[in-house]
Design goal:
6-stranded parallel sheet, alpha/beta, Rossmann fold, 18 helices, 5-stranded parallel sheet, single chain
Length: 446
């Protein structure tokens, strides 16, 4: 175990523009690697052309699972067996998680249709409706994640999406086994369309539809660079996806008021996800960094493999520590990084919170660990990664709803607006647009 398991990237003020770019563009090179893109494009095309047969091939080739096309959809018998095998404690946790996520998203859907009158005789607003269908990808392989299905499926159900399909990779090397807890979570949400598939191939199946898997209009869900690359690829064919839900990442801003023992635990929280995860500490205290090094080294040694190796890579290679001159500069670093998960452990959290703008979520204080947010708090935990938190948000009911503008004008309001409308039509050269107004006013187009 190295004496300093956290890589010290250096004082932010002393990093060159290229060094800063290297810190903030983590993960994108893997996702957009040309060789990966070519291989994923071939796999996507195979599914587009060959449907179920391609899914069966991909399961055999990449997951070591022999599954006939007739076995791609999880059966009612499997749902029943899963319910019987899950412990009461886990069932209670699943219901607790769904309840928190449901209540969070019901606050969002409560803000439905709206309208107002900007001037007499003119009413404008929006009509909010669910999308027709959604595909949810729940990763598997290193572990099973029923919590991810809760985080994706609950908002879709609350939004009122009528058709929901779930893709989950089966246990590698099995006969197609799907984790019982995931099936129980699906059952609690009323989702019956669960399909076993290789990850990237499953994304393609949702995008195009196969003999077994229905085509959907939007696909969401976190995954490996290969899965994320597949989501990018299917957008070329008209399927909507969220950018990007890739490998896990976290950033913690802490000053010398932070408890180093808790800080180390929180740095390791997201770091243990996988070898492509990243965990970053930003602090203005060299003393805190030194204490965190000691605590991380001690706690890292207590983790079992392969989690210990994943966490060591996330902190020692993919992530690390950045020293800031003060918390204002720490906020600058965090906004440039735009992390999936951000936690702040400082004396004046509200003052720092006012400076932060780019993050999938911001967890305030050391009593709000990422593990609580991942599993139970109710805020979205399927969040943009790779810097996309600067331009997009986590998966909530809004990800499954669309807004249609609605306007209604009467003769009085159109007459009042006509002069301005006609000025635009004449400047931009649209005589038919002008005529559509003038004919209502009993005038001839000029």
């Amino acid at each position: 175990m190295p004496a300093n398991p956290i890589r010290v990237i250096g004082p932010w003020s002393e990093l060159s523009p290229q060094q800063r770019k290297d810190v903030t563009t983590r993960g994108l090179d893997k996702i957009f690697d040309p060789d990966l893109r070519r291989s994923i494009a071939q796999l996507v095309e195979d599914v587009r052309v060959n449907g179920d047969a391609a899914l069966v091939r991909a399961l055999r080739s990449f997951d070591g699972c022999d599954v006939d096309a007739s076995g791609l959809r999880v059966t009612e018998e499997e749902f029943a067996a899963a319910r019987a095998s899950v412990s009461p404690a886990l069932l209670a946790a699943i219901r607790d998680g769904i309840d928190h996520v449901r209540r969070f998203n019901e606050q969002i859907t409560a803000r439905g249709d709206w309208s107002f009158e900007p001037e007499p005789g003119l009413t404008v607003g929006e009509k909010v409706t669910p999308i027709a269908s959604a595909g949810l990808f729940v990763p598997s392989g290193k572990a099973s994640y029923p919590s991810v299905l809760i985080q994706l499926g609950t908002p879709a159900v609350v939004a009122g999406v009528p058709e929901i399909a779930v893709i989950v990779p089966p246990v590698p090397g099995s006969a197609g086994e799907v984790d019982s807890a995931l099936l129980v979570a699906a059952g609690e949400l009323g989702i019956t369309g669960v399909y076993r598939s290789n990850g990237p191939a499953g994304i393609a199946a949702l995008a195009f539809g196969t003999e077994t898997v229905p085509r959907v209009r939007k696909v969401v869900g976190p995954g490996s660079p290969a899965v994320t690359c597949a989501q990018v690829e299917v957008q070329r064919f008209g399927t909507v996806t969220n950018m990007l839900l890739g490998p896990s990442e976290s950033l913690i801003i802490a000053d010398d008021s932070a408890d180093p023992r808790l800080l180390a635990a929180d740095l390791l929280n997201e770091a243990e996800h996988g070898p492509d995860s990243s965990s970053v500490l930003v602090t203005d205290s060299e003393r805190l960094l030194a204490l965190a090094q000691e605590e991380v080294r001690r706690q890292l040694a207590e983790l079992p493999e392969p989690r210990r190796g994943y966490a060591a890579t996330a902190l020692g290679v993919n992530g690390g520590a950045v020293l800031a001159r003060d918390l204002a500069e720490a906020a600058e670093v965090a906004n440039a990084y735009a992390p999936e998960h951000m936690q702040i452990a400082v004396r004046d959290p509200d003052g720092l919170l006012a400076l932060l703008s780019n993050a999938g979520e911001i967890l305030v204080g050391q009593w709000t660990p990422v593990s609580a947010a991942n599993f139970l708090i109710g805020c979205p935990a399927s969040l943009p990664t790779s810097g996309f938190a600067a331009v997009s948000s986590g998966i909530t009911a809004d990800a499954f709803r669309k807004r249609t503008a609605v306007a209604r004008a009467d003769q009085r309001s159109l007459t009042r607006m006509s002069e301005s409308i006609i000025a635009f039509t004449q400047h931009e050269g649209f005589p038919a647009h002008e005529a559509a107004v003038r004919i209502r006013l009993g005038e001839r187009a000029s």
